[in-house]
MFS transporter
Amino acid sequence: MMFAVAMTFIDQTIVSIAAPDIVSELGLSASGMQWVVNAYLLSLAAFFAVGGRLADLLGPRRVVVAGTLIFVISSALCGCVPDGDYALTWLVAFRATQGLGAALLFPAALAVVVAVFPVERRGRALALFFGLTGALTAVGPLLGGWLTTWTWRAIFWVNVPVAVVALILTALAHISDRRRDEPLDVKGALLIAVGMGTSVLGFQQASAWGWDSVATWACIIGGLAVLYVFCRYELRTRHPLINLSVFRDRAFTVDSLVLFFAMLAFVPVFFFASVYAQVSLSASANQAALYLLYFFVGFAIASQWGGRILDKRGARPALKIGCVVGAVGFALWAGKLTDLSMHDQWPYVALAGAGIGFILAPASTDAVNRAIDASYGEVTGITQTVRNYAASIGLAVFGTMLTHTMTDNVESTLRARGVPADQVDSVAGDVTQSITGQADARTPTGDGPVATTMRDAMSSIRMDFAEANQWVFYGMAVALGIGYLCALRHPGGQAAATAEETPTQTPVRH
């Protein structure tokens, strides 16, 4: 199962490293490239709950296989995108179906792992699962940097051999398929997909449309309204897509809230840190990948430690430690960004990663342990939906913060260098879009006075970008601080063992 979900973790970070080459070859705009990144997260957020429920109804083995096939076929097609007018549509469409495959695959895979281990051993087991699969996210930038030197298309094709091995291992594992003889809540599935998708779309497009845009708020408010209707409907239906009564457990609710605030930083940090390394530090794609590797050294070590704490003392101590360590790490990291030295930053990068490592496995495992009637796929679907919804909001909010701050900084730099006032706004906007839309800091060409000034100002613009990123990383520290306040509300203790099977479940071994 770890091998199967490795693809989905790698894919969250590998595309950002290859962004400049994709944009250059296909002629995409910065906003178009952002859609390529966002389509994956948008689809994940919309369909995770459905994937978790299908794992319960159809059996996790079937859903793992289906998710893997959808994911790898979509990956291969992403790598085969044709040049021309349809390139963006093709790439966004199959990135979305990649997200669908991942949304089916991950909850089912986690349900398999959870079902194998009793509650008292589950903390260390899932710490290993989350630690290794999470650390594999670091492989994304490293692999992306190496493969991009050949062709950026290889970042998608690399999933094919991984998927083949994953399918062979799944067949050899003789996974038990536990099914529920219940109907799928199709209306609920449609409501949550529309609600999640629409609201996430509003957050994602806020930087392009503007926070004062009617379209932005129509999507956000409309999506949240649909989610409210979904919750009301789920409380009345006999076989709901999500059993909302699980939120009556205060520990489960706190676990979900802590995950939400932690994930505001966890996924977005890959994009912002990799672009910062390539723009402000003038690092290559491979050097940017190594920069992110510091984060995962801390993450991998702390995730194992957090799992042991969960098994011995419950989730509350691990969550509190993780939020404090993460908040301090991100705050210290933010303070060092303007030093423009990768060597001076690594202890704080690792500390920030350790904070997330302490949180991720214990919060996810404790939430799953409190599953109602051993509905592991369903509860995993809930927690993963929360995680990806938070990641999308984090990318949107922090992206907007970065864009506005960067624009203001560049405008000040250009004015100080004598660029005419009537050109400052447009030039600053172009610079900001170029840098924040993709990991690219190529020096402007041309003999005009503005181009000449821009070439002379590149070192100042790199500092402007570092200062703009400080606000983003301080924001991540604040998010983890709020997570700490939520962790204080955790009742403590460990979840009682739940029945591994209910009368409606029929174990089937193949």
Summary: Confidence is low (pLDDT under 50) at residues 437-455, 498-510.
